[in-house]
Amino acid sequence: LQVALRIRPMSTAELAQGAKPIAHRMDEQVVVLRDPMEDPDDILRTGRSREKSYIFDVAFDSTATQETVYHATTRGLVAGVISGYNATVFAYGPTGCGKTYTMLGTDGEPGICARTLGELFQAIEHASGDTEYEVSMSYLEIYNEMIRDLLNPSLGCLQLREDAGGTVQVAGITEVSAISAEEVMQLLAQGNRQRTQEPTAANRTSSRSHAVLQVTVRQRHWGGGLRRGRLFMIDLAGSERAAQTQNRGQRMKEGAHINRSLLALGNCIKALSHQESTKYINYRDSKLTRLLKDSLGGNSHTVMIAHISPASTAFEESRSTLAYAHRAKSIRTTV
């Protein structure tokens, strides 16, 4: 499992509140977080550092471009997917820290999804003539522990099923054949308009659901067998405390579901990172972890991109995100 960390620029709201930057990228792998609450004159804490450093496979600060992030994290996965391996990229972190920006980007600055798909179709075009490729995609969201098809929302709530080979599938989901990256991006844009978003105090267009794009590449050699590679690209919902979003009522309930699935994901990550001691990994605690079973537990190249804000006002969120991502670094998947 490759773990990257991205620090976004300070927002105008944070600057208006008088927040100071407390998260800094020291070099290509190290991020340092300073506790803004600690008093440097506190006699009891002399000799203790107010700073804690975290090491990742790669770290980006606010100057990193979408291109840089893509090349360092995801580009290497494309060849594997075309050869029949599974790959997963997921964006993790609190609301308003840039997960959706990293995954989907903007028209001028496309994110990981667009770049990966562009590269995928390009590689297929340049592949040898004796192989036939077929690319299909599905796009779903997990909202309040229910699965909705974003390409065809009228289907209602869908169920997860496990096939004989142990692969978890979403029963009845729309799979659309695709012939170009542009076509997939149009479908994605259509799906995003269906996605559940609500304003919270932390972010005006907060994604309240986990969005999962699954691209399946099937290849058939003349006279040979059939190979299938699956690529998951996941934009997780924000992982933050209710106090930060000032949620009440329906939003509060929603947040509890989001946190439950992220907690389940955290528990799986924790269990996987101490695999000698635990025989049992509880994937069935949430729909999200069941869907990600292959990505986390085995047959997949997996990349996690964690996001934080550098502001002193976001210290608690940043600290728990850094600790979560740091723990994920010790997972080993066997592809």
UniProtKB/TrEMBL annotation:
For this protein, the record's SUPFAM superfamilies field holds: P-loop containing nucleoside triphosphate hydrolases
Picking any one GO molecular function of the record gives: microtubule motor activity
Spell out the subcellular localization from the entry.
Answer: Cell projection, Cilium; Cytoplasm, Cytoskeleton
Keyword Chloroplast annotated: no
Q: Tell me yes or no: is Iron among this UniProt entry's keywords.
A: no
Which Pfam families does the entry mention?
Kinesin
Q: Name one GO cellular component term.
A: cilium
- Keywords, sorted A to Z: ATP-binding, Cell projection, Cilium, Coiled coil, Cytoplasm, Cytoskeleton, Microtubule, Motor protein, Nucleotide-binding
Question: What InterPro entries does the entry give?
Answer: Kinesin-like_fam, Kinesin_motor_CS, Kinesin_motor_dom, Kinesin_motor_dom_sf, P-loop_NTPase
> Residue limits of the Kinesin motor domain?
1-331
What biological processes does GO assign it? microtubule-based movement
Residues annotated as binding ATP: 93-100
Main function: Plus end-directed microtubule-dependent motor protein that regulates the length of motile cilia by mediating depolymerization of microtubules at ciliary tips.
Similarity-based family: Belongs to the TRAFAC class myosin-kinesin ATPase superfamily. Kinesin family.
Which PANTHER family does the protein's record reference? CENTROMERE PROTEIN E (PTHR47968), KINESIN-LIKE PROTEIN KIF19 ISOFORM X1 (PTHR47968:SF13)
Which protein, by its recorded name, is this? Kinesin-like protein
- Organism of this sequence: Ibidorhyncha struthersii
Highest lineage ranks of the organism? Eukaryota, Metazoa, Chordata, Craniata, Vertebrata
The protein's gene is named Kif19_1
